[in-house]
């Protein structure tokens, strides 16, 4: 839409700039206040119900710690994929199995490093939020530095706002790129976001999360990493507001499945004031991910019960079968520590479970073999390959 032709209801305006005008959003809070329709209220209530269900079931299962870590890694992978990275959930599990205590001496492949950075930043951010800290600009910049560690592009500014204009290609062919505000506007806009977060927003936390995410992505304050950081902030904000008792839902898988609509709905807010359509999309993302997480957790609980029924004895094989949900990716030598057994016994356990098809070797190597728990991986990855 050409500059000067935006309707009055839009939360910003285009400013002339060569070769394309840039979009200057109004500072937060949004004025005049947004009217929340009955439909959005109903959708918000449904999303809240689903989030409550997954919080209730996830925190009670014996494997909650592993589930928590696995879901963070799934989110890290999905967020990296939205940016075009070629990385799998298994890659992160393999990395942590191979390097349980320290980083390797050799460089990590860029796509994997980006996903690992996301996992590190999200885990760190959640820890700080759960200790009572709030989202500030300095906190946001610190997270940005963590996300781009060793994956920055030449010319990128890490840990501070960009000092140059950026052009974001449209997912629709023939549509001009979206140009976020100029560097001179960033401090004031981001300070308004910080103030909005500190005051607790204006609406229900789920709606405020949608407003915050739209605003952050539209301002696009950094030279790179805005998408990853913006999605991460959704989780931190809802956790900080006490809305996610335990953060078992993550939005990136939904945004990745609907990537074009994700971009277009935010652009429609800027150019048409289409808040309701954006709220509907965003809330459906949270609702569907919560529903999926509940189903996943329920399936894992049933799988645990099956293993306990099929392997009730006290042999090393039985004991480890019942622990597969705690150790879904491992090497045979790992079992020496897990089970306090000899290497010979550990390899016998691996042979037995491989014969029962509970585990599968994934490297194809003769030495240094690695194994994954087939059923556990199938359940965890079901949400990422729909």
TrEMBL record:
All residue ranges annotated as the Fido domain in the record: 135-284
Cross-referenced SUPFAM superfamilies: Fic-like (SSF140931), Winged helix' DNA-binding domain (SSF46785)
Signal peptide: none
UniProt-listed Pfam families: Fic, Fic_N
PANTHER family: FIDO DOMAIN-CONTAINING PROTEIN, FIDO DOMAIN-CONTAINING PROTEIN DDB_G0283145
Name used for this protein in its record: Fic family protein
Organism lineage: Archaea, Methanobacteriati, Methanobacteriota, Stenosarchaea group, Halobacteria
């Amino acid at each position: 839409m050409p500059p000067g032709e935006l309707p009055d209801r839009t939360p910003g305006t285009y400013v002339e700039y060569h070769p394309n005008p840039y979009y200057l959003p109004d500072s937060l809070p949004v004025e005049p206040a947004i009217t929340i329709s009955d439909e959005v209220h109903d959708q918000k209530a449904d999303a809240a119900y689903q989030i409550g269900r997954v919080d209730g079931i996830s925190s009670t299962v014996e494997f909650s710690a592993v589930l928590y870590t696995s879901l963070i890694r799934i989110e890290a992978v999905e967020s990296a994929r939205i940016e075009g990275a070629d990385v799998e959930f298994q890659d992160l599990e393999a990395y942590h199995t191979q390097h349980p205590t320290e980083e390797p001496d050799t460089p990590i492949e860029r796509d994997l490093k980006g996903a690992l950075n996301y996992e590190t930043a999200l885990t760190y951010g959640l820890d700080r939020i759960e200790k009572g800290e709030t989202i500030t600009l300095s906190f946001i910049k610190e997270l940005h530095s963590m996300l781009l560690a060793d994956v920055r592009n030449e010319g990128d500014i890490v840990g501070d706002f960009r000092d140059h204009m950026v052009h974001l290609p449209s997912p629709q062919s023939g549509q001009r790129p979206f140009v976020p505000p100029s560097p001179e506007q960033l401090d004031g806009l981001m300070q308004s976001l910080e103030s909005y977060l500190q005051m607790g927003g204006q609406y229900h936390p789920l709606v405020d999360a949608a407003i915050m995410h739209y605003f952050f992505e539209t301002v696009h304050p950094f030279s790179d990493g805005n998408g990853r950081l913006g999605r991460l902030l959704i989780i931190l904000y809802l956790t900080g507001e006490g809305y996610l008792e335990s953060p078992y839902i993550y939005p990136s898988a939904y945004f990745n499945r609907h990537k074009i609509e994700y971009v277009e709905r935010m652009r429609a807010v800027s150019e048409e004031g289409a808040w309701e359509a954006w709220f509907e999309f965003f809330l459906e993302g949270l609702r569907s991910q919560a529903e999926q997480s509940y189903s996943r957790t329920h399936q894992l609980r049933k799988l645990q019960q099956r293993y306990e029924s099929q392997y009730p004895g006290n042999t090393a094989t039985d004991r480890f079968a019942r622990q597969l949900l705690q150790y879904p990716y491992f090497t045979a030598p790992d079992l020496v520590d897990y089970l306090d057994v000899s290497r010979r016994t550990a390899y016998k356990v691996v042979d037995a479970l491989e014969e029962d098809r509970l585990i599968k070797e994934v490297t194809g190597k003769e030495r240094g073999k690695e194994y994954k728990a087939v059923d556990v991986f199938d359940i965890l990855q079901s949400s990422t390959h729909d």
